[in-house]
Every structure is written in structure tokens, then in C-alpha cells.
Amino acid sequence: MPKPKPQKNAKPKASPVAKPSKEPKKSPTPPAPKKLPGSGPVPGPAPAPVPSPVPAPAPDLDPTEPGLPWEQLSSDERSPLRTYLDQIGKTPLLTLEQETALARRVLKGDEAARQHMIQANLRLVVRIAKDYDDFGLPLMDLISEGNFGLIKAIERFDPDKGGKLSTYAAWWIKQAIKRALASNGKTIRLPVHMVDRIGQMRRTTHRLAAELGREPHNDEIAQAMDIPVAKVVHMKSVANRAASLDQPVGEEGDATLGDLVKDESERSPFESLRTKSDLSEIAELLAQLDPREADIMVLRFGLNGESPLTLEEVGVHFKLTRERVRQLQQSALMKLRRVMTERQRLLTPDDVRRNQLADARAEVLREFFRSKGMQVPDRPDRSGL
């Protein structure tokens, strides 16, 4: 009976040998590799997680997040934005190793690698675009413009020079968005530096509003930005969105803003009549010049309804030097003055009376149109050029 006892003790001795065999089974899948995709370069066994990267749902793209002005978007804007966010969220984020490998392939002309990098970095464009949402362009248009900047960044990114693609691409994305805002966001084109200053003013305004618990005054914004108050007022005026002429107005909404805006390009009846008279008189005067002098006068002073040309532009048209064009112009003006002086001298009493009656009728028409609130030009000087 005493011999079996050592056999029972022998079995427990074998258990320490079995424990090491269980520990290696857990080592192939430690929790550490799952943290590697977003942490940075990892030597040795880092490629292990590459076949199954973590998708990363990117919570900052959630439309319910306060940073994304979801409540400010119309229903027409929400639907395509929601669809777009769902679509780009399906592409996994890249690890640093994947980013480096794909970037090198892009530099070699690999189109598949280029498309992969674009799809994987579209989230970055959305995050940047939403900072410029209140500058006059819809958010989806800002995202579209930012995507062009992302494409340029990916095509130019060299991973061997150091740095991450997100840092490099952010500059290109912002530049693309700013240029789009400067060109298309306003009826009047804004320079890119003004877009930057307006963005700085908006951020300062939001910060002061959070600190003060109210909307900051212009002098408070100016003091925080260390700029004159007049500059703040100016930036606020140009930052306001341009109103659409199709925007309904009135309680019934049966009229548009365009119906109420005066057409400054529309000429009054008086101006149309005066223009016809002037054109007829000008044509008679130009007929007294030789053809080349008449053409020079027409081009130099825009008598054909086109914009006036410079001496250099007229010279290119006639293959003449600038000085020669100036000489011909002076000669033509002297001839026209002589013709007009001669006409005034040869006027009969009846001609003078007719001119006086015409001027009187024109003055009556001028007063009538002024009473209707129309812009009427002053009476032209008939004494000469």
C-alpha cells in the first residue's frame, strides 16, 4: 500500500509541464496587436493584423454629433449626406504600414492603390469640410471640393519623406475648400485670405459666446482678435450669405425677391431715345473721317457698344505702334472738332429754333422720368467733343 502513494504524487508533477503548453495557445492572439493599427510603426510581427483591419466606425461622422450641423441642414441635404456617410464608413481605416505601402504603389502609378487610399481617407474631408459649412456653400459641395484636394495630396504624398498622410492632406483639402468658397460662395468673389480671416472671426465669436453666455459685441470680438472694430463689421458684412433671387417673399409667398429688385441695366425710355439720337449724330461725324481713323475712334471709345480698347490693343489690331495710334486718334479728334464747329456756324435760325425745341422737349421728358423715380442722365453738351 505505501507504493501507490508515490504514483499519485507523480501525476501532480506532470501538471506543471502541462501548464506551459496551455500558455502558448493564448500567445498567438494577444490583445496588444489589436491596438497596433492606430498606434504607429511596429517592428517585427506588425503585419499580423493587416489581413483583418479594424473598420473603425468613425463616430465623428455621426450626424447626431454636435460638431456636424445636422439640425441646420434641410431635408434635401440630409438624405444625400446620410447616404454618403454610410457609404464611406464601409471602407476600413488604414494602418501606418498599409498607408506607406499603398503610397509607394501610388507613386509608381498603381491606380488600384490610389483608389484605395482615396476611399479610406474620405472621412478626413468630411471632418474638415464641416468647419466651413456656414460660408455660403452647401456641405455636400464643400465635401466635393475637399475631395479634389485629397486626390491631389494622395498623388503627391511621399511616405519616405516622413509625416502622415492626414497631416499632409489636410492642407490640400483646406486650400481646395477655401478656393471654392472664394470663387463660388459669394456673388462677389472673396480672396482666400479673407476666407481665412472670416473663419478666425467665427471661431473667436463662438469661443466668446461660450465664455460670456451671450453673443459677443463687435468691440469684444475686435479686442480678442486684436483688429479694429471696423474690420469686424466689414468681415461680418461680406460673410453674410447672398440671398437667392428666387427666394419667396411676403406672407403669401406669391412673389420672389427678384420681382422686387430694380433692374439697373434696364434703360429708361428717355435714355433709349437719346442713345438713338446720339448714335445717329456720331455716325454722321465719323463719316467725315477716313475709314482707318473712324475705326480707331470706334475701338478706342467703344462707339460700337463694346468695351473701349487701349492704345496697345488698337495697335495690335491695325499692326501699328502705340504712338502711331495716338497720333491718328489726335488727328481724328481735331477733324471732328472742326466739323462740329463748322456745323454750329452754318446753323440757320430755323435750325437753332428746332434744336431749342428739341432740348425743351427733352427737358420735359427728363422731369417726367425723374418724378417717377427713374435715373435720368444730364443733358449732353452739344458744343463739341
In short:
By secondary structure, the chain is mainly α.
Describe this structure in words.
The chain is mainly alpha-helical and 385 residues long. It contains 17 helices and two strands. It has helices at residues 4-26, 32-35, 75-88, 96-107, 111-120, 122-129, 139-156, 165-184, 192-212, 218-225, 229-239, 257-260, 269-286, 291-301, 311-318, 322-346, 349-371; strands spanning 248-249, 255-256. The chain has a two-stranded antiparallel ribbon. Strand 1 and strand 2 form a beta hairpin. The longest helix is centred in the last third of the chain and has 25 residues, at 322-346.
At CATH's second level, what is the architecture of the largest domain?
A: Up-down Bundle
The helicity comes to 55-70%
Shape estimate: elongated
Helix and strand pattern: HHHHHHHHHHHEEHHHHHH
Count the DSSP helices.
Answer: 17
Topology:
Elements: H1 4-26, H2 32-35, H3 75-88, H4 96-107, H5 111-120, H6 122-129, H7 139-156, H8 165-184, H9 192-212, H10 218-225, H11 229-239, E1 248-249, E2 255-256, H12 257-260, H13 269-286, H14 291-301, H15 311-318, H16 322-346, H17 349-371
Helix pairs in contact: 4-5, 6-7, 6-8, 7-8, 8-9, 9-10, 9-11, 10-11, 14-16, 15-16
